[in-house]
C-alpha cells in the first residue's frame, strides 16, 4: 500500500466518527466580541492566510477564534452557528443566530489576567462586526454566547492560491464546503507522482518540490473524511500569487 493510500485509509477510518460527532453537536458556552469595523474591512487577511475574504469565498460573516478553538490552524474554514445567551445578557437580540467561518486567530493578551478573553482554555469568538450585530448589540462590547460547529455551505468550487519559490510550493486551500477544513492534501505535477503536503501555517499547505512550469492537480481530504481529486486544475503557465478553481468540485462533508 502506498503512503498516499495509507493516509487515505486512516482518514476514512475516522470519517464516520467525525461525521457523527458533527451531526450530534451540542450547544457549548463561549463569549464573543467583534472587530474589523461595520463594513468588516479590518477582517481581511488573518492567521488562516485567506487574504481577501470575499475572493476566498468567506465574505464578511467570519470570526477569529481563540487559541483553544483555533487548534494551530486546523480549524481554518470551519463553520460555527452562534447565538447570544439571553439567560445571561440583556444585550442579546432574542431569537437570532448567525453562522460564521473561522478565518483568523484571536491570540491571548498576556497583559491581561489569564491572557484575556482569548487566553488559554477559553472558547471565544472575535466576530466581524456585521456578524456580531446579527445576534447582539454592539454597545455591549462582549456578550455570552452558545455555539456549535455546523456544516459549511459554499458557492463554487475549492480554490487553490499559489505561493512559494522555484523549489517550494505553498498552497492556500480555500472555500471548502462540508466540514470546511482540510485534513490532508497532495499535489501532482505533469511530471511527478502524487506528493503529500504538510500544513505550513493556517490553511497553507507546503510541498518541498520544484513544480514551476508544470500543470498541477490536487487531492484533498476534508476533516469530515471526504476525499476529492482536483485534476488539472492549474495550467502549466501559472505564476505565484494566482488562485485557481474548477468552479464546481466541493465537499459535502
Structure commentary:
This protein starts with a helix and ends in a 9-residue tail after the last strand. A hairpin with a 2-residue loop joins strand 11 (198-201) and strand 12. It is built from three helices and 15 strands. It has helices at 3-23, 67-70, 129-135; strands spanning 28-35, 62-66, 79-84, 98-106, 124-128, 143-150, 159-165, 168-174, 182-189, 194-196, 198-201, 204-207, 216-222, 227-234, 243-244. The strands form three sheets. A six-stranded mixed beta barrel has the order 1-5-2-4-3-6. Strands 11-12-8-7-15 form a five-stranded antiparallel beta sheet, with no helix packed on it. The chain has a four-stranded antiparallel beta sheet with strand order 10-9-13-14, with helices on one face. The model is unreliable at 10-23 (pLDDT under 50). The longest helix is centred in the first third of the chain and has 21 residues, at 3-23. Helix content is 13%, strand content 36%. It has 253 residues and is mainly beta. It comes from Urochloa decumbens. It is a peripheral membrane protein. Pfam families: DPBB_1, Expansin_C. This is Expansin. One of its GO terms (biological process) is cell wall organization.
